[in-house]
What we know:
alpha/beta, 6-stranded antiparallel beta sheet, 19 helices, 21% strand, globular
Amino acid sequence: MTDPIRSIHIAYGSESGNAQALAQDLHGQAFLQKYDLHLSDLNSLDLSALGADSLLLVITSSFGEGGPPSNADGFSDGLRALGSLPVRYCVFGLGDTSYPAFCGFSKSLAAALAEKQAQALIDPVEADLDYWAVYRQWLPLLQTALENPTGRPLTHRLSVTAYGRNTAYSAQVLSCERMAASEPEVYRLRLDLTGSGIAYQAGDLLYVNVSQPDALLDEYAAYFGSEEARTLLKHKELRLLDKTLLRGLAKICDNAELKNLLKISNKKALEQYIHGHDLLDVLRTFDPDKKITLAQLAEAAADINPRAYSAATCGRTHPDHIEICVRRIRYRLDGRDYEGTASSLLCGIGAGSRIEVFAKSNANFHLPASGNAPIVMIGAGTGIAPFVGFLQNLTSAAPRPESYLFFGERREAADFLYREELQAYLEQGVLTGLYTAFSRDGAEKYYVQDVLRAQGRLVWALIERGAYFYICGGKNMAKAVEETLIRISEEIGGRTGGNMFDNIVADLTGAGRLLKDVY
């Protein structure tokens, strides 16, 4: 297309207002004012008004699994109905690399425009959470492309890389420090993200790609009498058992005891067996005749999944690194020693080593986007990790909401994770209240749900003031905390009656004010 550009149509697709804000800013740029300038959402754009002398500037986010925002959901249908669209265009996509379908809608839109013979003025941009910074770098490119058209799309290096399981980032370990003095040990790992393009929020998850350790593969090689076991099983899930896998193996080895264990009537016995045992135990216990071959086991076993850890930092305040908090899993059962697949790797790693990681959004465990409602954080053990990121985020919040942390561990002297940081946040006023429960320090066990109940009047007052509650830790702890909240509502709030669908926990959950990250 050689026609000079006379009209520019800025069209946005925006669910939360971010893309619209960029489009409005673009509409006010001085270097565009000499053109016949138009601004609208994508659904309101009149495609018939676009011609060979037009430039279409699209700024859009994606919604859900790469779908269009609500004010852009009809644009693709209108475009599809056209035979061609002889127009020049630019697409600026906003996304979050921690989502699987990163910039899914803007990518499909750029592809659809190209299919209709539209010509790109600049290669499409796929921006992450730092989209304003990318946008400011994109503006000079747009001005250059308008003033000096070349007939070919202007290239750039503004788009970020979307990392995932198969495209993980090799992060350098900056430090690995032991935190808890008692056992099992707890370690704090800091990983370098400089130049990776990974952006994350407080509350998001860091996934670590792992493979089976050599010591465990040695056992399988010995069991099958084949070194091939190392290759076939290195990236298979050998530690975690599930009913589907056990059913498949039971059919092969035809073991009556295993089949009996899998019956519905033996649900509790199966749960007890699965907790702590692994795939090698199944082979040794239920397949004494070794009917299950190495090839059959490799086919039946699932591929090993990346292990998820809550970010213990805030990406807004610490964009160039991320920290995670890892408890080492190590125990002895029935005369055999076991180690966690990921924790054995991470807790023994040295500074300078590299591990494959990628971040994912934990959208249901983010701080409120707006407002000044109090924040209540409840965690036990390494469940404190995301709350450290929350507090880092709150240091620069304006206005800063009240924040309360209820934290449980075993012994105060040995296991008070992040003690110095928490004390500093208290002194700075970032953390309003800190309430702890150390279960092994007294004559009777005292858990985080107990200290929560002891502060029942405060908790109820915060509920009435619209507080957001966050729970992170084990499922049993989370259940006990929810039961405590119900008791507080009854004993202090005067709430009576109700059932599992009608109680304070259900109310808070339904209102989006009770959020959980449990395991």
